Amino acid sequence: MKYGNIREEELKNSVAQDFFGKFDCTKIIKNIDFAVKNGETYLLWAEAKRNRDDILAMLAQLVLTIGKARTFDEILPPPFLGCYDDEKIAFVPYSEVQDIFYQNDFNWKVAPSDHETREFKQIYAQIEKTINTTPWQTYIFDFEKDEKELKRFIRENFVVGKMETSKIRIDKNNFITVYGKWLETVKPTIIADWALAKKAGIIDGDFYLADLLSEAQNDGYFTIKDKLSVLLKARFYETSRHVNEAGMFTTSRVEFSDNQKAHTQFWAKYERPPLEEYWDYIVDRRDLIVPQDVRERKGSFYTPKIWVELSQKYLSEVFGENWQDTYYVWDCAAGTGNLLAGLTNKNNIWASTLDKQDVDVMKDRIENGANLWEQQVFQFDFLNDDFLPISKGGKLPDELFDIISDENKRKRLIIYINPPYAEHGNRTTFAGKGEHKAKVSTTSKVYRDFQNIVGTATRELYAQFFLKIYKEIPDAKLASFSTPKFINAQNFLKFRNYFKASFLKGFICQANTFDNVNGHFPIGFLIWNLEERKNISKIDTDIIFSNADLKHCWQTGKKSFYAVNEKIFISDWLRVFYDKKNEKIGYLILPGVDMQQQNGVYITSQPTKSDVLQHKTTGITIYNIMEISIYLAVRQCIAPNWLNNRDQFLYPNDGWETDEEFQNNCLTYALFNNNISSKHGVNHWIPFTEGEVGSKSKFTSHFMASFLSGKIIQNGYSNLFEQEEDKFCIKREFSKEATSVFDAGRELWKYYHAALGTFPSSGVLSPFGEAGGGGAVNASLYDIREYFQGRNDKGTMNNKSDDETYNELIENLRIALKILAKKIEPKVYEYGFLKK
């Protein structure tokens, strides 16, 4: 360890001297531990710890330190944020984490050094997600082992030059900070009625973008300027075309009050336009410079306006046209209240949220016209606080408490929410220490109260909201956005045994239409009657699609979700065929039983240690190869999409047992869609004989060819059939689709064996670990792919080969497999592996 047993200040001095000697590291900015400066430009802000620490934790503390002081409002941020301890240093581009500083409804007042606060854990999780999404943007060096590489990185990225005398370039790192300075200097000189402009959808940020990009020139009919609402002309601004009072299209001219003096002086310090590579990014992230009140009014950070409006339409359809006069509404996860926008009867609306900052925002919105009563907006930690009225020392408004306490009034209370979605995980830390991930949802009172009742379902925050509502507000109506997996997921079995209600109506839409959600899965808005308690067995929802800008939506059909209230999943079916006694010829990796886990299901020669420890694997023998093949084919033959993402694979009926064509189709699919490799032992999965593929040497195992043909092919290896040859030696008949797969595979194997003639006969390691070509003769499909496609410098197999003949042959095989998958798909539903 390069810097063991020294104090933190000594560590900072040593790092500065050893690696940043050409720069100024003496400046102290707010409470930032370490800063590297060149002239007037900062290159690095970093957190320092004298003892070995988690990289994510150090970065989270740094982000909280910067965000609390809003350092970026006063000083242009550097290209990199970083952190180091006595062993290692890490760098992250500022642009990768800058969105965190501009998130809505965040309490920056907490102590950055307190790692137990909700805010620290939230920042930690956000940084972890960012880093896991773009790991190549994070650079980690060991001070001792990577000293040369670290110095090269600093030399190439911390460039010494004319930064202090050149104009400042604007890029994705600093365009928001420059905007903040522009607001103070330039905006006051623009002659505009900002309130009227805001009503027209034009904000001050549009004038800033005009300054940045009006001079941008690019090729093609459509230019970046076509995306701007305002353009800068030589001495004035011009707004985009709009309809005037006469009903005619026109543009508006906006002048400066000081003959453009402040504008000219301000932009003399900056180079415009930015580099072209940043144009689209800056325009597309206009949301970061939208005023906070506008962002909240439009729902930019929470439920999109289109889904708010549609959800209220569904409420009207369920509870009647005049439902707002008949029912009470409580949004107990209100945030800044955008879900309540559009409701008209404020006498019957209550809004509560965890953070006082959210409450302040809602009250500020009330002053600016939001349709809420201030006394009915309050701070309340729904998952931890007790249901007590203010008059008795609690936090609930007395009138709301009276409604909750009165059985008849409670039946007319609608809990209308889009609760937070977070799940406790068990992933190792980014630093590679293998420590348990910081808890996300396992610290609430509801979690403690229900953990033993509903099991792992309590790990999800939205489920905790449902549980407390169900217990504390019986007979109410629940109208909530959430994932629908609580209806059908395996880990919600106990939840469904506890939570019983009548489904009234609902719709599903794509999750990635919500802010900061990237996954392709459904989000449902589902309305429940908690008064009518009955087992949830099936719900039918409307499928809603929307256009890209979320201006229009339409219904395209129905989607059913089936609740499974006992253990009858596909994993239970497969468990019947586990074989722990006989010789293994491969292993099946099997994660969860829903469609989203599809990519994690595969056959391999050797499971990872992690798969074994997590019980995600089972052995394949001659006694269960057919059932394993069925499992693999069923799980992989249907492409996942946002609609089927949460569908669960189930225990099938017995129809498959007599359908030999289906069985053989699945076997064929598994033979040509696996990760078996001869690197890890004898390959029993070669579906051809030597003569069929032109092999110049004898295969070590003929098991699969024997199994398929019903004829024992003798070789020097032990006979896997042992004494039961009659049971397994059954000639199999294959469909035309399966036969096409065999034909395409045979051509690929033939081409490979013909290519083996180019291998040296001895003295050279083959791709499969044996000297010469002897090991290569037993190649599996995976080995053949590796032989032709090769691997990159990171060890990942390349997507294609330089050999065009091979590319054509492997594509022919993939096409044949897709056709076979379509053949198998209807049987998946017919035999009950999935429900439509």
What's the count of strands?
A: 24
Describe the strand arrangement of the main beta sheet, using strand numbers: 15-14-13-16-17-19-18-20-21
Radius of gyration (Å): 32 Å
Into which percent range does the helicity of residues fall? 25-40%
Roughly what fraction of the amino acids lie in strands? Answer: 5-15%
Mean pLDDT: 84
Query: Distance between termini?
Result: 59 Å
Structure, briefly:
By secondary structure, the chain is α/β, with parallel strands linked by helices. Helices cover 35% and strands 14% of the residues.
Please give a structural write-up.
A nine-stranded mixed sheet has the order 15-14-13-16-17-19-18-20-21, sandwiched between helices. It has a five-stranded mixed sheet with strand order 1-2-3-4-5. A three-stranded antiparallel sheet has the order 7-8-11. The protein is 35% helix and 14% strand. It is of the alpha/beta class. A hairpin with a 6-residue loop joins strand 20 (538-546) and strand 21 (553-562). Residues 160-166, 218-222, 292-301, 424-440 and 759-775 have low confidence and may be disordered. It has 31 helices and 24 strands.
Keywords:
836 residues, alpha/beta, 9-stranded mixed sheet, 31 helices, 24 strands, 35% helix, globular
